[in-house]
Amino acid sequence: MPSQHRSIRGPAASGRSTTTTLPALFLFLCALLAFAQLGAASPQPSRKNAGQGDNPLLTKPRATELGDKYLIGIGKADITGPVVEINMAGYASSDQVGTGLRQRLYSRAFIIGEVGNPQSRFIYLVLDTQSGDTAVRNGILEGVAALGSGYSMYGRSNIAVTGTHSHSGPGAWFNYLLPQITSLGFDKQSYQAIVDGAVLSVKRAHESLQEGYLDFGTTSISDANLNRSLFAYLANLASERAQYSDSVDKTLTLLRFQRAYDLKNIGVLTWFAVHPTSMLGNNTHISGDNKGVAAYLFEQAVKGDSRAADGFVAGFSQANVGDTTPNVLGAYCDDGSGQMCSLETSTCADGKSQSCHGRGPEFRKLDLGVSSCFEIGRRQFAGAKSLYDSLDSTSTAVVGSTIKSFHYFQDMQYYKFPLDNGTIVQTCPAALGYSFAAGTSDGPGAFDFTQGDSGAPNNPLWSVVSGLLKTPSAAQVACQAPKPVLLDVGEMSTPYAWSPNIIDVQTLRVGQFIIIVSPVEASTMAGRRWRNAVKAAASKLALAPAGVEPFVILGGPANTYAHYLVTPEEYAIQRYEGASTLYGPWQLPAFVNLTLRALPFLAPGATGAPAPGPTPPDNRKSSLSFITGVVVDGVPAGSSFGQVTAQPKASYVRGAVVNATFMGANPRNNLRLEGTYAAVEKKGADGSWTQVRSDADWSLVYTWTRTNFVLGYSSVTIGWETSADRGVVVGTYRIRYNGDSKPLIGSIKAFTGVTTEFTLV
Q1: Annotated binding site for Zn(2+), which residues?
Q2: pTM to 2 decimal places
Q3: Which ranges carry the Neutral/alkaline non-lysosomal ceramidase C-terminal domain (predicted)?
């Protein structure tokens, strides 16, 4: 991605984000100083389909057998935070502030437990957010505990909080200072929406627990991802690269949840590595990006399917996403030359990165990435659905009654450990290199920073800023080498910690199925090495039943966001991902070491747990916020909230966009969780109206516009894109707007507005 933590943005080509967060950064830093009284390489076309050769961990498919019984439960709940006036999380652009909603965001909860042993369970959460986070995880743990004694078996060790890594959701909920900069701090409403929805999804999953079976399968999706840092990937040994058919993992893994009493499927959980950066950095409508599209399409597709139970939940989790991109046509210079960007530095003829942009499959439509996003989501859905349809004859049953998990914290500051050859190495306090500021072809950075930056840009501004904030110690410089340190975030704690030094180490196991819960965006090869090491160790420890191979998957970014993870060879290249690998060149071997040392706790007869480790800082109560609340909503004299100011036409041909505009109010007054701001209603033969579309649907777009700041006037436009609505039928319809207005004095009041009817032909 361009990380949420990258707070530098530069000008871009037409149709792209043209923002820079540098002024916002300086304003925010000035506020902090006063408060504290401080004195990508051009991606190359994908090679042939990866198939089984893409991942040596894959087991060969075999005819399905019902494996062991487990307790299984699924749940889904709305986590859509404020959709306007809050900076969006992902691109770290201060100008990318929400103006509306394309698709609601969700938490999807999956619980797996031992039959008859309520203490042996784990919860895997998939949130439509940029990542997991320490503040959010703490809130979820507290919320689940508050549900009562019936939930006492869930806690720190067995709840994994993962994000899909969407770049199109509201921000301002992070625990650490650095990602709060572009959002102007912490917003309680944004944070609470995620926490409350996640807890509700856990409650629903827990209440749905029943006996059932698990099985899994894999498939190859050849056209949904590409390596955006191929130059760094090529630094890995040729002999290692030769083990794989592609420079990114093309394999999608699907775990099916099937209830026992009628063998109906209640949900699926998938893992596939692709950045949700299909929606561009100048998009300002909230959505789940391509992962949200895939989940939406899958859940819609199984409605009415006799094999699927009501309330079916499809989770599309992230994998080793670090160097992947959904911009599968490659990265080109939008400078009129038509040339591909430099393989080594992701720059163009002027030597800068600003005009280097990745191209999605529908980039020519110039629609802020909407069409490309839907297409990449559709490709993930199509692969997953095809695999799902074949599982009865091709899947591998999960077997072995053991369900285990572990979690502990590790301080990465100068953590010493031995490599396989006995050499003692160490990790470092968190730091970001100069190429962090260069961004990627998914979202370029600013000024003359480039990927592979040596640390000496022509513009001396950031040398001054870097030194003003914190000059790294000699020990830190030596530890991080060859990374030139731009931001020494791990040694900055005023007014509170800027980035995490303490990470979560967590792994889950059911039978032979093992899930590494990663706090970072692992690069393709880093993820492969981590999985391979865990599989080899799991085999030696006999974690899987006799005669069954362990199957290892990696999911994240989870629990706390610790940026990136690359191989030592990729780190030496210092492209964006290497510069964003916080803890130095030995971070990957350290993460492997930390996982393997606790792996015996997953053995069938194991008791106890690893020492919990040092508790990371909880900044929820100390976080700054310069985000203003809603003051007042108003309408002109003689008007009313919800009044239609632009009616739809009387008739439309299917494929057209139906628009209606209303006198609006700020949607931050009421998030309408589990509800909707916008709705399409269809007229029945008896004259009654039935809601057929809502905020959950990709084709219905809600846009809020402030028209008079002083008097609080605003308008809402609801657009129904019938060309993107494959289920639309001829008929008579109308559009409904649900809002809530805030007076200067008094309580918030709900209202609604309804258009005249129109026909689709």
Answers
A1: 165, 275, 521, 564
A2: 0.91
A3: 597-760
